[in-house]
């Protein structure tokens, strides 16, 4: 399908309208005229180098925003029309002085036919629409498929382009006649822009571990309360006593057989939870070939045979320095094997490499007992139907109060030794 151009609507304030709102509207309209806006249905039609240059310039850049990662999602069939993730990448193009155009801003955007793989739950909103015989799906969603990681969503070369991109996204949502627009896990600055633009803000909680410069895993343990320290040592001892050892494989060291083994583990874990895996072997092979510098495979072995694995994604750029816990699976069950493979082994890697933050993924209070602390997350929402928008806004006010109380409670239960 060919990309289509989009022209922001004629709903800008009239130039003759008095007041500051009209002046602001004129300025936004003038800024918009500096760009050509295009919706792109196939990421492969966007130049990879320009996309990645734009990503690298963002304070909230993550490896999941890279062209190779997103393209692997689509090309592998993991996130595509057939699975309910229909790409609608929103792009702004600016003229080059020497002729031609450059990619000035871009937003990963999808038309979604369901709410799976998002980690910000709006099923109740969809049910309310259905009860009133109104369509909630398809909806517009800006997110990284199956990836609850905070980061940039408004990729832009400067602040003007960022604001224009957001206005374009809202205009696209309004003119599309779809129910809503949702932006999941934007960074703090972008969330503020979205709230200023009238989007409704929703808050959630994740658990992140931070590294102030630990010299060893034991040095980290020494900062925890005695009970937490004792429990972690006991968990690690149970794994070691079962004769389980570990190998750390950087991306270039992961060969075809290891990718196949990891995929077996990943699928087995979904099967045991009576669920369908979102990703497939082709996806893992594609990111293994395209971005090995960001991948670490932790393989658990017993009696010389691999039995479990955890795949983590990391960015050791000093400006970001973050490891993201992502995918795990096991072919054998052993007490505490999950904690060792998905948490303690990655923590040792972070300490050895000087990586400052480990984002453990969505939810999971059990992470606190392992040194992870609660962090507030954000999402932004726009609903076309005025009555539903009002109802959701009232709900979010009540939910925010509950989230704030929950965060206070969690912070009172710190795993670290006091004083």
TrEMBL record:
Pfam families in the cross-refs: FemAB_like
Location of the region described as Disordered in the Swiss-Prot/TrEMBL record: 1-29
InterPro entries on file: Acyl_CoA_acyltransferase, FemAB-like
Ranges of compositional bias, category Low complexity: 11-25
The protein's name: N-acetyltransferase
Organism: Cupriavidus basilensis
């Amino acid at each position: 399908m060919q990309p289509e151009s989009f022209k922001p609507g004629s709903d800008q304030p009239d130039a003759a309208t008095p007041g500051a709102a009209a002046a602001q509207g004129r300025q936004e309209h003038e800024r918009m005229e500096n760009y050509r806006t295009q919706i792109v249905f196939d990421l492969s039609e966007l130049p990879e180098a320009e996309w990645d240059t734009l990503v690298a310039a963002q304070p909230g850049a993550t490896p999941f925003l890279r062209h190779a990662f997103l393209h692997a999602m689509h090309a592998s069939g993991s996130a595509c029309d057939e699975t309910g993730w229909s790409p609608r990448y929103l792009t702004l193009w600016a003229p080059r002085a020497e002729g031609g155009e450059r990619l000035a801003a871009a937003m990963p955007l999808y038309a979604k036919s369901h709410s799976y793989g998002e980690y910000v739950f709006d099923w109740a909103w969809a049910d309310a629409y259905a009860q009133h015989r109104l369509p909630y799906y398809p909806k517009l969603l800006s997110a990284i498929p199956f990836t609850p990681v905070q980061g940039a969503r408004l990729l832009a070369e400067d602040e003007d382009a960022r604001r224009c991109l957001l206005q374009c996204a809202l205009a696209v949502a309004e003119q599309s006649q779809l129910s809503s627009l949702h932006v999941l896990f934007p960074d703090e600055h972008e969330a503020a822009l979205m709230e200023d633009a009238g989007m409704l803000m929703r808050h959630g909680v994740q658990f992140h571990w931070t590294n102030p410069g630990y010299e060893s895993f034991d040095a980290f343990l020494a900062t925890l309360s005695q009970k937490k320290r004792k429990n972690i040592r006991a968990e690690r001892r149970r794994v070691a006593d079962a004769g389980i050892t570990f190998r750390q494989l950087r991306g270039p060291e992961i060969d075809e057989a290891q990718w196949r083994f990891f995929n077996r583990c990943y699928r087995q874990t979904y099967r045991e939870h009576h669920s369908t895996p979102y990703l497939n072997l082709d996806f893992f092979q594609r990111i293994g070939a395209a971005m090995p510098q960001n991948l670490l495979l932790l393989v658990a072995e017993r009696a010389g045979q691999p039995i479990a694995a955890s795949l983590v994604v990391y960015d050791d750029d000093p400006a970001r320095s973050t490891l993201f816990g992502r995918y795990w699976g096991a072919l054998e069950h052993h007490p505490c094997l999950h904690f060792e493979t998905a948490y303690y082994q990655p923590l040792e890697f972070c300490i050895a490499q000087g990586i400052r933050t480990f984002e453990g993924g969505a939810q999971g209070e059990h992470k606190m007992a392992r040194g992870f602390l609660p962090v507030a997350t954000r999402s932004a929402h726009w609903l076309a139907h005025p009555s539903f928008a009002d109802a959701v806004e009232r709900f979010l006010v009540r939910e925010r109060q509950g989230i704030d109380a929950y965060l206070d409670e969690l912070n009172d239960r710190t795993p670290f030794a006091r004083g």
